[in-house]
């Protein structure tokens, strides 16, 4: 009985060895990330996005782009506060933005944070926000997350 099962075990071991070798070679051919992906590929970074144009990291294809100078003055003031690390005028500023609308590239919870852009004359925080991502991207919405513009910084 031992004699009969030895060829099967040898064949199984050889098959496993060849499969492993094939996986290693496939990883080397693509640039060789630890997970078989190329460094910087969406799979390696966890992002599920189209290729990014330079100057606006993380921008989904088709999303409008706005230059910082074209933002309302209140948004530019909020950007300065974000860059300085605060202090922020609203308790909600800096909290996690969940991206429930799905308009921004998908990332793990905690990747995005939101900040209020004051709206003159509004009785509350208003509808304007800046959302920042862990990859240093910035998005602006003036309609409370119904649409976004990527901020070119």
Automatic annotation (TrEMBL):
Sequence ranges of Low complexity compositional bias: 51-61
Give me the ranges of the annotated region Disordered: 33-61
Source domain of life: Bacteria
Q: Keywords on this record?
A: Hydrolase, Nuclease
Q: Which InterPro entries match?
A: N1-like (IPR000026), Ribonuclease/ribotoxin (IPR016191)
Renumbered to this chain, the signal peptide range is none
What name does the UniProt record give this protein? Answer: Guanine-specific ribonuclease N1 and T1
